[in-house]
Amino acid sequence: MSPRAGLTTEAVVDLALKIVDESSTEALTLAKVAERAGVAAPSLYKHVKSLADLRRLIDLRVVQEMADALRTAATGREGAAAISALADAYRAYLLRHPHRTNALATAPDESDAELSRATHAVAEVVFAVLRPFGFDHVQAVHATRCIRAAVHGFAGLEASGGFGRPEDVGQSFEVLKTMLVQGLTNYAEKP
Amino acid sequence: MSPRAGLTTEAVVDLALKIVDESSTEALTLAKVAERAGVAAPSLYKHVKSLADLRRLIDLRVVQEMADALRTAATGREGAAAISALADAYRAYLLRHPHRTNALATAPDESDAELSRATHAVAEVVFAVLRPFGFDHVQAVHATRCIRAAVHGFAGLEASGGFGRPEDVGQSFEVLKTMLVQGLTNYAEKP
DNA sequence: CGAGCAAAGCTACTGCCATTAGCTTTAAAG
DNA sequence: CTTTAAAGCTAATGGCAGTAGCTTTGCTCG
Predict the structure, then answer these.
(1) Closest to A145 (Cβ–Cβ): which among B105, B138, B163?
(2) Residue B46 carries which DSSP code?
(3) Could you tell me if A74 and A128 are in contact, meaning their C-beta atoms sit under 8 angstroms apart?
(4) For B74-95, what is each residue's pLDDT tens digit?
(5) Per-residue pLDDT tens digits for B146-178
(6) How far is A152 from chain B (nearest CA, A)?
(7) Which positions of chain C lie under 7 Å from any protein Cβ?
(8) What span, in angstroms and rounded, lies between the C-alpha atoms of A185 and B85?
(9) CA of B37, C1' of D30: distance in angstroms
């Protein structure tokens, strides 16, 4: 292996993700990561190019985890049930990790092949689930954007405490899912 | 008035908002604001309590502007047309000011009466537009959340470049609005 | 007109953080 | 047992937020 073998890039990202989950994205500093790793701050540069690079690695991890979660949710389901399961999985992930919302909102930089691939993987799951609706390609793109906007919008707002009122948020999400499924069905019938 | 009378809190927020619009929320520093104001950085504390306070003032401004924009869009319209106009206005505002998305996503702090009132004002517009649908109070809350989630989600993703594909984004938004209006109509008929 | 007072600004300083440069240690490989 | 490259360290720089305390200025009121 390597000398001291205490840290790896993976481990640094783990620690950083823990800080993000416990406080917030903005609260992430290399100084805090170094403290938790039991290491001097400059030592982190052996595993990570910069704070910006660490943030990118976090985004990558989050997008990959989301793709996995959605794939798992979709397997063995079809049509309306699959859409609903996808939505639930997305919401559950963001409720478990509220501070990860922004990682799923930012555009993947063109030049970043790895992150682009991960983002693409998420879209692929939605595309697959949409297949039985019989959309052509352009329609499928529109439909995917609608699903993503509605579900990400809802989960993101909920995760950041955006819904102040006491009425049951889960109920609201059920309403949203119903609208979505009906809307997709309608759109498939008369575009 | 006051000595030198060069700056006011308003003017500081104006300059700060310009910086946010030109670069990003994270790029906002008191140092940059001071430079643009032609003033030493510590002088800003005569007009603003802290960077966090300045950020709050920005959020407040944005939410108030959005409430105005939505009110304007809704006046003279009703039902489906009003919903559509609201959605268009929300999207247009965020397209004009992409870096202001987060100001509309964060929860208003309970203890912050002014910001809470502004947020409430936005919700009130949606509530008003929903009246002809004949929802009871709980249904109206669910419906408002769905509208906000879908529209904010879409506009926020679009504003941050989240839609990479070349297909017409405006077309996608039309699909979303159609789903929304149909969904609300359905929900009003059979909850 | 001439104090005087409070607001607005300034300089000097502290502390935190990212990042760079260059040195030291250590574990693995021969 | 020696070599070597990775991993870590200390020292230093520069940017920024925030605080303390001084100075200026313009309005207000005798």
Answers:
(1) B163
(2) G
(3) yes
(4) 999 999 999 999 999 999 999 9
(5) 999 999 999 999 999 989 899 999 999 999 999
(6) 6
(7) 6-12, 16-22, 25-28
(8) 24
(9) 37
> Does the beta-carbon distance from A182 to B183 stay under 8 Å?
yes
CA-based nearest residue in chain A for residue B153: A153
> pTM score, two decimals?
0.96
Query: Among A186, A84, A89, which residue's Cα sits nearest to residue A134?
Result: A186
Which nucleotide does the CA of B52 lie closest to, via C1'? D17
Positive or negative, the CA dihedral B76, B82, B85, B87 is positive
Euclidean distance between CA atoms B74 and B172, whole angstroms: 22
User: What does the alpha-carbon distance between residue A50 and residue A42 come to, in Å, rounded to a whole number?
Assistant: 10
User: Phi first, then psi: what are they for A75, rounded to 5°?
Assistant: -65, 130
Chain B residues in contact with A164 (beta carbon < 8 A):
107-108, 116, 119
CA A136, CA A121: separation in Å to the nearest integer? 19
